[in-house]
Design a protein that fits this description.
GO molecular function, one term: anti-sigma factor antagonist activity
Family: Belongs to the anti-sigma-factor antagonist family.
Oligomer: single chain
Protein name: Anti-sigma factor antagonist
CATH class: Alpha Beta
Strand content: 25-35%
InterPro entries: Anti-sigma_ant, STAS_dom, STAS_dom_sf
Number of domains: 1
CATH architecture: 2-Layer Sandwich
Pfam families: STAS
């Protein structure tokens, strides 16, 4: 898994590519997210268009991110999942927990209204 992040219009934008399998990068990523939350960031858009696969540990990473933001009164939106990932979100019913948008612009608009 590869990821990068930036702060854009008060939204923490996280982009994944490859396979989200919650390997050792997971703990490092959660630490980066916690640092930004501690600085007052409350909104997060996670671009998952580059993900090919997510396993149960990867799902755990997404849920941990969501929980950290919501515990501080924030929100997380998933952006542009591919067909395989979209099927997984539906099967696991995570599509009922996460808000999903087709574009980063749509995610930012949705987050600004939350």
């Amino acid at each position: 898994m590869k990821y990068n992040y930036k702060l854009e219009d008060e939204v923490f934008v996280l982009s994944f590519s490859g396979d989200l399998i919650g390997e050792s990068d997971g703990a490092e990523l959660i630490e980066v997210i916690q640092e930004n939350i501690d600085k007052g960031v409350k909104l997060c858009a996670i671009d998952i268009s580059g993900l090919r696969y997510i396993n149960s540990s990867g799902i755990g990473v997404l849920i941990t991110i969501l929980t950290k933001f919501r515990n501080r009164g924030g929100e997380v939106v998933l952006v542009n999942p591919g067909d395989q990932v979209k099927k997984l979100l539906i099967i696991t019913k995570l599509n009922n927990i996460f808000q999903i948008e087709d574009s980063l612009e749509g995610a930012k608009k949705s987050l600004s209204n939350s």
